[in-house]
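Because discrete structure vocabularies remain unfamiliar, we first show an illustrative case, written as a sequence plus integers encoding its fold.
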Amino acid sequence: MSVDNSSKTILIAEDSSVILNLTRKILELQKYKIVLAKNGGEVIKQIESNPINCVLMDINIPVKDGMECTREIRRHADPRISQLPIIAITGNANNYSMDQFREAGVTDYLPKPLDFDALVRVVKQYVG
């Protein structure tokens, strides 16, 4: 039974165009719709103007970092937004402990370099 993910939209918050394009291709192959935010200033705007199902949040994005964006999402008045699954993507997970991720409201995290099988598995776990 093939799953139709075409009604599911993933927001990718990532400033590296290489990682962004790879991640987008991988998820588009899984039939997800993709919305992009190149910096932390665009994240909330994109979430408020699109029906997002999951956020892939690079921790080191400009303007507002991923931790700050995550906290902002968690404080949002709309429960559809404040309860979104947020998957942190970080090249330096060692800078943050899992407790700090949890405290910020991160649902799960993936280390860089990204393992694309793990990416697909984690997204499916939260988006269905």
Q: What stands out?
A: The chain is about 45% helix and 20% strand. The chain has a mean pLDDT of 92.
